[in-house]
Amino acid sequence: MAAGKVDHLDPVWDDLDKTLGQLFMMGFDGTTVTPQIRTLIEKHHIGSILLTAKNLKSAEDTTKLVYELQKCAHDAGHPVPLCIGVDQENGGVNSLFDEIYIRQFPSAMGLAATGSTELTYEVAKATAQEIAACGINWIFGPCLDVLTNARNQPLGVRTTGDDPQEVSNYGIAFMKGYKEAGLATLGKHFPSYGNLEFLGSALDVPIITESLEQLSLSALVPFRNAIQQGIDSMMVGGCAMSSAGLNVMHACLSDQVVEGLLRTDLKFDGVVVSECLEMEALSHNIGVGGGTVMAVGAGCDVVLLCRSFSVQQDAIAGLKLGIENSMVTKSRIKESLRRVLTLKAKCTDWASALNPPGIKLLSTMQPSHTQLSTRAYNSSISVVRDKNHLIPLSNLIDPEEELLLLTPLVKPLAASAASRAVSETISAGSPEPAVWERSASVMSGERIFRELGRSLARHRNGRVLHTSYTANGVRPVHENLINRASAIIVLTADANRNLYQQGFTKHVSMICNMQYSTGGEKREKPLIVVAVSSPYDFALDSTIGTYICTYDFTETSLNSLAKVLYGEIVPTGSVPGTISHSQKLHQSRQHWLVEMFNEERDANALDSLINAVTEGTPPNQRSELSGSTSNTFLLHNPDVIEAHFVVRNSSTQQLYGFCSTYFFKATGTGAIGALFVDPARRKLSIGHSLHNRAIRTLLQRDGVKRFQLGSRLPSVFLGIPTGHSSERKRLRSWFANMGWNTALSRPVCSMVARNLGAWAPPDGMAKSLQGAGAEFDLVFGWEYAAQILDHIKTSNRQGLAEVYKLALADSAYCGVIRAKRADDPGTIVGSVVLYNVNSHLAEFVPVIKDMSDACGGISSPVISPAVGEYSTLLQGLILLGMRQLKAQNCSACVLDYMDGDGNIDALSAMGFEVLHNFEEVSCDAATWTMVPPS
């Protein structure tokens, strides 16, 4: 297609009828070429057609219709093809809907909520490619209105918000995407529909009361910038303007607006399109014939008349009469013709107009566009607030509990399958069903939100109750269902213009805030409010503790909502515009779906996650997970209640994060034994979600007395890793924010003595041990259990009893070295566990496996508190252990759980070096309070 401004006019345009026809865009009723539209094309030579949802049944039918219209124009001798335009804004405004071939994308505000102009460009390009494949060459977009009165405007989510620069940035992204696909673009609705005052009657024109100075500082900014970036055409609205020095009844009929403001001040030289002159206020007050003359005289290049054949004929006759009466000059007509022909040269020619690619091209684009649609919707969902951490729902209510969905009775979006289903039901004379299929586990509801109810039901095993609400308010049936359900979701759709929705939601909120008792525990009933259109319904109402915005209620949008509610995707959207900024509305911390670890399902994925974390450790550091496998965390010990949690991708089975918890019955200690996240997915709140689920679980253990961060068994993370100062500071801060008192931590470490074959004890050590007043021996087997287990009760450290029991039960590879009083051999004053790489205990000490095939370990020293020679006894126990391991030809000795206070120097003198440092953090379970993440 050629591009560039048309200056020289072909002699064919000396035919006034053909020239005048190019100045009209007309619509019609029907899904095929009707006699009326054929007459307008063949007899009156109209140059542009507007298609609406009433014309378009499917992508295939649209392609046929567009081709027939172009063929009609070609056969009638039109010098250039028709411009065929549609509104295809996505969200709730799509003229063309086809469930198979045309993808649904978020509304303009929904895309702005993603925070990405790049994604907006991709969506705009994809949208334009799809309608272009059907032969359409002119898209009525982007919407450049600034919502300077955001909360009460019918435009709602059709624009990107109330920030002029933000609207401008996204508008230009839309425009560039449309242009990339070869479509002509049209900015609307100049000079702005963003702050209209409505007087009430259909015969009253909405009014812009802002002055030109005010408009220039805000509403005109996106239009000015779009003009500088090369927008092809501009629609001037049918609104009135009333301010100092500017009184206009209809903007599109005013030369002050079109020629003065748009052409002269903003320097726009593209095609100006009038608002539809069939609007009741204009046709009643002025008349279409006179209005057409006024529009062209004001500077409009294309006059829009949407559907009435008789009115369209009046408009053509009126313009001809205006020329005859010299109200409109022929030079003025030729000026508009040049602009129209310049536009057409950019977006069409006969070769493309008569050969639309249609379904064949759409089929090739469909997979990638489907992925783009899902990505865009997933990125747009905005969790404005989640004060009580109600998301994901699966962490909130159990499968046997019921979830209640309350939805308003609203008309379905024109772009939705629900809309088509409703119209087909009505046309078939079928009453609306009162009850959903029982297989969906839903009691009652209406068709408009059927898919959301089904999605929620598919995501959980429990029942989903669903009913609608109206202006009649909260009825007894609602109260009964609210009392019955364990959590409630209320949907609103433009509650600012449907005030009954505000009242209903506030009433439900009041009911939920009333304290009720479940098993003696009093708490608020969880309530989630979802605005499925305008985000301003409850954006500033902090009494609604959990508030989500979807920006439209198409099927794709509600499917993304269901995924957010159940934690399958992380909500990353945020309400666009200055209102959210000024009110400090910010995206709540993301909440991931946390699931119980399933060994059969997740073991391999956990091994992969461990590898990813290990490989993600800097080269100069050694990961605490080195040598670990999924089996490391599974104790299968009758004395320990274990529960482990994962955040995973249910589609790919990949694990994003893992947390292990253990409840040691002997000491009443609940421990978080490990918490790690895929390095590629850190800083996304996965760790927060896992941690909170772990704490909730440990709090429910009968007899829990204390919490511990770090676990002796398994011996992977003995506490917060503190090997490097920067990492230590970050991790301590993170756990402090999660509620742990890190100031009361206790240093512990793991150590190793390498090259055991060449090792010899320090000079004089053996002699000094002789003066310790103790005798040492090594025992194996359960027959020694009673005395040893009684001895270790002098320490309340978690996991000790379990370690000693493992050792005593595994006499082939484990033993216990005892220190007994020399003057009372029946009294044990110290002990350590001795084990080698083949023992069952070694499975839970991954550093043993990671070190070498011939490695042994010394573990869990217990020195009686009454003994004064603590350090001497500890050294004696370890010295004997090292001799035993050397005699067994072990190449290295690991100390896997040592106090990090005063023993490091003494142990270093024996040949040990530190492998990993930790800070063990403990607290009384009764005083635990979860500090909200900062």
UniProtKB/TrEMBL annotation:
Glycoside hydrolase family 3 N-terminal domain ranges (all copies): 16-343
GO molecular function annotations of the record: acyltransferase activity, transferring groups other than amino-acyl groups; hydrolase activity, hydrolyzing O-glycosyl compounds
Gene3D superfamilies (alphabetical): Glycoside hydrolase family 3 C-terminal domain, Glycoside hydrolase, family 3, N-terminal domain
Keyword Hydrolase: yes
InterPro entries: Acyl_CoA_acyltransferase, GH, Glyco_hydro_3_C_sf, Glyco_hydro_3_N, Glyco_hydro_3_N_sf, GNAT_dom, NagZ_Beta-hexosaminidase
Residue ranges occupied by any N-acetyltransferase domain in the UniProt entry: 644-709
Pfam family, one: Glyco_hydro_3
GO biological process, one term: peptidoglycan turnover
SUPFAM superfamilies, sorted: (Trans)glycosidases, Acyl-CoA N-acyltransferases (Nat)
Assigned keywords, A-Z: Glycoprotein, Glycosidase, Hydrolase
The family this protein is said to belong to: Belongs to the glycosyl hydrolase 3 family.
Name of the protein in its database record: Glycoside hydrolase superfamily
Organism from which the protein derives: Lineolata rhizophorae
Organism ancestry: Eukaryota, Fungi, Dikarya, Ascomycota, Pezizomycotina
